[in-house]
Amino acid sequence: MRNRRSALAAIAGAASVSLALSACGKSDTGSSEKGGTVGIAMPTRASERWITDGNNVVKDLKDKGYKTRLVYGDDDPDRQVSQIRDLITRGVDALVVAAIDNKALDKVLQEAADADIPVISYDRLILGTQNVDYYASFDNEQVGRLQARYIIDRLGLEDGKGPFNIELFAGSKDDNNTKYFFDGAMELLQPYLDNKQLVVPSGQTALNQVTTLRWDGATARKRMQGILAKSYGIGKVDAVLSPYDGISIGVLAALKSDDYGSGSKPLPVITGQDAELASVKSIIAGQQAQTVYKDLRQLSEVASEMADDVLNDRTPNVNDNSTYDNGSKVVPAYLLQPTSVDKTNYKNVLVGGGYYTAADLK
Length: 362
Fold this sequence. Notes:
The protein is of the alpha/beta class. The protein contains 12 helices and 13 strands. Helix 6 links the parallel strand 7 (164-168) and strand 8 (198-199).
């Protein structure tokens, strides 16, 4: 499992797997016929999806015969750096890393490279370092396009309807995916902003004006409350571009506190991402309008396959060798496709696909 860095360079990649660990302490999980240990560094336990991701990667690697160590950084970049350094010291054979701050890992990943430990960037591209071997994610611009397309269709913008008031939200400024989501959405929405079918009463349209640190729902709620107080004395919100379900729930809370959802003040069209359980239930209840479903089972499988391939001197399967330039190199990537979900198709997509049971959604 050692001295792999030169071999990885020869095959243009490396893998990362990680450590399985609870928030309070580290624990080995699974038995290993192959004898390797993979460290898994996830960003937070505050989001349902990252708990699911961690458990899925652990299971997939265990099924392949690896030991794992799983750690959660709890949205603290310094803590995540310390956790990764600890995994390196413990001698893991590969790292799978979903970064909290995608620009904060250069030094610790150099330590991984010095120890011949390959690194797989998981869902969030790690920036500014040569020491990322592969990237496993979804087509992130397509996520934004699906959210924008939903707003366009629901408001009837292609039929010339409008003007409508919209507010824009984006993810955390230190997450590289934030720009991809926002750019994908704005590619479709900008023409309607330009022709005034869509109007942003707050005036907040630039990415640096609409980010939400750590994707935090409470932060989004506070910002939405401020927008309503300052920009909506008379008018009403018709749509909210939200990039993530946790942000959507925060936005909904602010709107409800301003009497949206009553007969005279219907809730706007609100998008989301990740098909988190609370948001799917909200969609069923007619509150949040849409979410973008990303099958995390597929993502963990891709990352686990990458790790297994690299640790066995095989070239991992990728489908994008040009898009994901992290500022230091173009990282070979495998991108999965997301799916738009709303009240009309959640049963077929989420229940039919086995992601949730009907009982889960009661």
